[in-house]
Amino acid sequence: MVRFLCSLWLFMIIFLSSQAQDQWVDKEKSLWHNNRWQGKWISCPNVPQRDYGVFHFRKDFVLPDKPKTYKIHVSADNRYRLFVNGKAVVSGPARGDLHHWYFETVDIASYLQPGKNVVAALVWNMGVYAPIAQISAQTGFVIQGESAHEMAVNTDNSYKVFQSKAYTPCSTDNMERLNAYMVIGPGDDVDASRYIWGWQELDFDDTAWSQAQVVADAVPQGVGTDNIWTLEPRNIPLLEEKPQRLSEIRWVTGMDRKAFSGFLTGATSVTVPANSRVSLLIDQSVNTVAYPELSTSGGKGSSVKLSYAEALFDQNLRKGNRNEVEGKKLIGNYDVFRPDGHAHRLFRPLWLRTYRFIQMDVETGDEPLTLHDFLGYYTTYPFEMNAQFKSNDKRMDDIWDVSWRTARLCAGETYFDCPYYEQLQYSGDTRIQALISLYISGDDRLMRRSLLDFHYSRVPEGMIQGRYPSSRLQIIPTYSLWWISMIHDYWMHRQDDLFIQQFLQGIAGALDWYGQHLDQENGMLGPIPWWPFVDYTPQFSSGLPKGATEGNSSILTLHYAYTLKQAADLFAYFGEPEQAARYRKEADRLNKVTYQHCFDRARGVMADTPEKQVYSQHASILAVLSGSIPEAERYAVIKNVLEDESLIPVTFYFRFYLTRALLESSLGDRYYDKLDAWRKMLDLGLTTFSETPEPTRSDCHAWSASPSYDFLATICGIRPSSPGFKSVLIDPNLGALKEVEASMPHPAGEISVKFKRKGRHGISGTVTLPENLQGNFQWNGKQQILLGGKNTIEMLDGL
């Protein structure tokens, strides 16, 4: 009865709360939610609707005067780039799934004029070449004006459409050439002689174009019974896009390098003679994500191949020091542009490219080709750095900067695991990324979006998909548990109950799935199907520890117990005490039985299975985090984990959890010493942090950006001590550092700290909190109450 009443109470809160109370939903959603749009989904007639294709749409319309506002909603499948009177306005849509297909809302009034106007869109469908992150139904494009006078641009069969014959997919063999999993979609081979130049301009003659075909009604969420795309407003901001100049030309063949002086700055043009082959290697100096743009004139019959790479390879296909180019070659995805001989042609790929290095290979025919300019347009989610960290170790500045660059390049319309190879959102990676976002920027919108994405991805068995959005099903059972941890993280950092409570059913479903896979004989988890990935350490085959697929893995069992405790916190908070008690009881049972079967007292660590033949750092880390190791033993166990070199080591990904275990074992001061792996990456010339230790596939991988979070949460010790970050614990772990100074955003303002070592064990400094925030300062077993405003810290040796 108590559970029923609590559930009823929650339901009434949701029912009685207006949509304005939910900050996630656009306040204008009610304007369209209950009405079928008048704008229709349109496409190109007489083409295979699910095949590769690039299309131009446009419509002329007349306005009596320049409007003050002119809001429209726009979307497409797969993607679009919208122009108004020849000016690029917006790109999208933010990737989702067919049940949650996003549209952008944009005010185009500043682009309009009295009299004739034109709205035009480049729409493309990558078909079988589409990135795995791209879900699709068929080619489609839709615009809906917000009000009656704005509906002149609604899509219907009054639009004209032309299928471009200029585009051909290329670089479709990346996986074979790079011998790596690479699923970001194709490159673009663009023939300028077949391109319809000026198609987006106001004075373009489209009389020869076809009439667009209506393919479906535009259906908002909750409306309709025969939908293709179910529309929702975009729930994240538009991506940042700004010019980014390339840094340096490292070598040139086929021409004098001096001819390219000033080219990368846009100051001078370069003319490549007829019947020539010229190559140049361009170094951005740091890894980046951008839309490259190349401007040319002349050169009919020529080709320009642009190849992109994070790093170069030597003869043994090893990367080595990333700054070195001598004796190395570029292997990577590429685009091709084929000029038509006319002046000032502009090439820009349909989708963003990731690169530090670009190799430009120019081959001319009977005409010389002039290269006017070449630059990138940097594009990522618009996170801002609202935190800072400084210390007496200046090398930490480099780790801080490179960590943040890594995190930024791994955030677009979703979080990316890596921008070069996959651009897929995995919950294991995303948990770490989301904490970085909260601490460095304070922006929680992409975290909220990712929690919803995984919520939408659930399969009938109760698990979430390991990555989502994704056109291919992939179940990573451990990632369902990390999703629950993400929800717990969000609950601890943000007061947002109505948003969080919607996930309780999904949490219960995933945990019930695990409960069905227990080994009844010894009480641990039995064989786990699908891909129970843990870490990419070489001793784990495909990331799987001993016992994962055979059964009785201490790592998987303890991970389950760890998550049960987090779920218990959530269910207790949301009025489900019986469910919470059941989860805690099961977690305690799993911890106890795993400790009995797998803890090796002689070695002082947890074995990976009851046979005690394989030992990894992972098992003891999760034993500490789950509470399987008694509190009095944790210090000794984690000390053994750090010092026993025979244990299978964690990689960059799972070092995040090693750090959590250090904090749980009063060994947080050891974190600073464990940054050598990041220092080594800097020594190798990496400008973003890699997926794994050398040899590595990806040079930019989000889970390796964890120092951005841990410099604040571990070294400075700033962590929430109650849900919603309503109180704070400041528990610094300086290690060998003598001085640190940092600040970070908090929902109520800014938290700033400044600490200095005093003697061997003392500390002094200040902690400044938002006025309404309170907490505790903790140092070597001593505590001090913290109040809003500036607090002075003075804890000296022996006091």
From TrEMBL:
Q: Which GO terms describe its biological process?
A: carbohydrate metabolic process
**Where do the Alpha-L-rhamnosidase C-terminal domain residues begin and end?**
717-774
Among SUPFAM superfamilies, the record links this protein to: Galactose-binding domain-like, Six-hairpin glycosidases
What start and end residues bound the annotated signal peptide?
1-20
Tell me which Pfam families the record gives: Bac_rhamnosid6H, Bac_rhamnosid_C, Bac_rhamnosid_N
Q: Which residues form the Alpha-L-rhamnosidase six-hairpin glycosidase domain?
A: 386-708
Question: Which parts of the sequence belong to the Bacterial alpha-L-rhamnosidase N-terminal domain?
Answer: 67-216
Gene3D superfamilies in the record, alphabetically?
A: 1.50.10.10, Galactose-binding domain-like (2.60.120.260), Maltose phosphorylase, domain 3 (2.60.420.10)
**InterPro entries (UniProt xref):** 6-hairpin_glycosidase_sf, 6hp_glycosidase-like_sf, Bac_rhamnosid6H, Bac_rhamnosid_C, Bac_rhamnosid_N, Galactose-bd-like_sf
The answer to keyword DNA damage applying to this record is: no
Task: Provide the alphabetized UniProt keywords.
Answer: Signal
Q: Which PANTHER family match?
A: B, PUTATIVE (AFU_ORTHOLOGUE AFUA_7G05040)-RELATED, C, PUTATIVE (AFU_ORTHOLOGUE AFUA_3G02880)-RELATED
This chain's protein is named Alpha-L-rhamnosidase
Annotated organism of origin: Sphingobacterium gobiense
